[in-house]
Amino acid sequence: MSTRTSSDLNASSYNMIVFTVGNELVEEAELLKGHAVHIGLAYNELLFTYSMHNSSFHHTQQNQQLKDSEPKAAPVKAEVCEHRMRTKNNSDVEGNAKENDLVSQNILHQKSPSGTWILQLSTGCDSMGSLCLPWFLFFVACLTVSDLSTAENFDLDGGIDQDIFDINEDLGLDLFEGDIKLDGAQDRNSIIGENYRWPQTIPYVLEDSLEINAKGVILNAFERYRLKTCIDFKPWAGEANYISVFKGSGCWSSVGSKNSGKQELSIGENCDRIGTVQHEFLHALGFWHEQSRSDRDDYVRIVWDRILSGKEHNFNTYSDQVSDSLNVPYDYTSVMHYSKTAFQNGTEPTIITRISGFMDVIGQRMDFSESDLTKLSRLYNCSSSLSFMDSCDFELENICGMIQSSEDDDDWKRLSQAPLGPESDHSNMDQCKDFGFFMHFNSGSVNVGAKALLESRILYPKRGFQCLQFYLYNSRKEPDQLNIYIREYSASHVNGSLTLVKEIKDIPIGRWQLYHVTLNVTNKFRVVLEGLRGPGTSLGGLSIDDINLSETRCPHHIWHIRNFTQFISSTNVTLESPPFYSSKGYAFQVTLDLSRETNAGIYFSLISGANDDQLQWPCSWLQATMTLLDQNPDIRRSMSNQRSVTTDPLKTTGNGDYFWDKPSKVGQVAVFPNGTQYRRNTGYGTSAFITYSRLRSRDYIKGDDVYILLTVEDISHLNSTQMQPNPVPTSGGNKELCKDLICENGGICTVQEDKAECRCPSGKDWWYIGEKCEKRGSTRDIIIIATSSTVAVFAVMLIVTLVSVYCTKKKYNKETSSNSTDTVLENVQAF
């Protein structure tokens, strides 16, 4: 087979594509004959068109063999083809990269009025110094043409969407409620009471047995805890109690702190998913499964005859004296809820939600629900989260404490719509008509060079690194600009010193666009947003909405997919991202597989790049994290879906090659729509990334846009053994003395003055007592005893009183009778 040539491109199948190569125009037919296209990274807006006659832009599996040649050519900048051919342009075009700090590479898809598809590609790379070079991957389509070959993907999940309980069942584990480890006589009572809570900062050890990908996922899960709660994690430094995370058989944890030193939590094979890690750590923090609440049957129905024999006890409910729901309503969306298929003996669901719309919601393992966070905050008395700093959707008139600067020419105005766009804010996106607000700089009404400054309230950093996320809308045809400054306060700059952090130019017209900006601030500061009026006479301006600031790391790249709903409504569709570079210079690509019936898959591939000859091969210990963004206005409420994979340099293919070796050595030839060849390694990921029903929920698709955030980082340091100091001696650390003392009812053996004794659990209105916690007491018992005692005393006093009255009366009657006789006799004698 051969590559596609100019003869394949006729008027009936393609519109004309025009590029400039150096200083010359090259039509597509000529380009495909001999020019491999390079990206000039300084240019970040490229447009090209395809006709609908070319069977849309989806990828099908074909075994077409393509040539191995990779010709080189001069850097290229594409001219815009807006359904017309341009004349030859003799102006000089600088093709070399002028910027190395471009944040993202995005492919955008839009259907034109003429029936063609317009794909807009914004190119860029993260900071890589000299490694960030122009290279031949140009016009990569997130949707490749249907007649191109594709490498097969390696599916980590084998085509099966397994939940925690499925994994443990397949391993033959007999755990309480499927993933809870009970020790000795421990039962569900153990979490009730202060003794079983961890401190807000929890020591941990990542044991050497863990897979390195699991270690990276666990650290990412810790970041979610920090962003959304007051719970923090720190490497164990000798504290009395700590969590030891290891690769055991399956995914499981104990519930609550056992106060017995080392407490194990297993993240076994196939458990290295961020939702699974969050789930197991919530157990360790003291949470049981949502469907075991005492009010469970009001919200779901358990179909008992569909449950595996011997597993019925996993569906028991427990009274509110045993498990505290913390006064939070039943939560179908909890990450702690069983799925509808839990412990099923066939194909029918074991749990049926009484509100039918939640059938496909229960059992999610994506992220904390809002109620999960509420319960965790109540249990651990959280008043704020650790790494979250600020969020603003401008719904309130106080605009989140932001201020209009006096050092500018105009102000940002709070609007619900602007005359030339946007027609709605990003938060609500037309869901609520005439509702929702954003901030707008009407640049078309001021002079060229005029500016408007909007400043955040004063913020106080703790970590020294921050990520600013926001959505930006441009409604002017001529280019305006948004500048991001930091006003930092210090002893030497009491009024704040202004530092430019980022200039955002070439803003897409007529749509909301996501941006991330990395900050590195250590002193108190304000974020300053400066809108700058560009040249031209057109009306319109800049709008900004849904600002979030957190002390987290920004994603390295953003893959923006537009008009997304048409793809999930089609069949056999596979979307491919534009090419990206990691910070170490490795080129990669991400594939979103929409060809399966129920689930979308996602895969990470290394591809040939400009730096390959200078890099180490096989590629070692790079973790690629692919995140489907939930576009909630507040990142604390976002439930983004994430999957991570890691490049193991020792992994081999079926024919003995290294899986992550140089793409030119082990990759398959692939071709971009313009005919440029490159090599792509086998994709590595999962076919069970997210179900379509979940994908259509929440704000994964918003304004028909989908964002996939990509981070590829070196985690080789996690191969090192974590330092494990000697534990601090405590009164409860001597297990030998506790060997013969078995505490009942969830009691814990501790050692006091070299003597073993049971520490008994207690709640607000109940407790256990006795040498082995064998006796239960409660406020109700006391009331009954007190009442009974009172009644008994009253009865005794009443009896004594009655007897006393009776005796007194009898004696009185006797004395009266005697006196009466004497008197009569005397009278008789008197007569």
From TrEMBL:
Peptidase M12A domain residues: 189-383
Cofactor annotation comment: Binds 1 zinc ion per subunit.
Ligand binding (Zn(2+)): 279, 283, 289
Alphabetical UniProt keywords: Cell membrane, Disulfide bond, EGF-like domain, Glycoprotein, Hydrolase, Inflammatory response, Membrane, Metal-binding, Metalloprotease, Phosphoprotein, Protease, Secreted, Signal, Transmembrane, Transmembrane helix, Zinc, Zymogen
TM region positions: 782-807
Cofactor(s) of this protein: Zn(2+)
Top-rank taxon, per record: Eukaryota
Lipid bilayer topology: Single-pass type I membrane protein
GO molecular function, one term: metalloendopeptidase activity
Reactions accelerated catalytically: Hydrolysis of proteins, including azocasein, and peptides. Hydrolysis of 5-His-|-Leu-6, 6-Leu-|-Cys-7, 14-Ala-|-Leu-15 and 19-Cys-|-Gly-20 bonds in insulin B chain
Chief place of localization: membrane
Domain MATH: 554-712
Catalytic residues (positions): 280
Annotated protein name in UniProt: Metalloendopeptidase
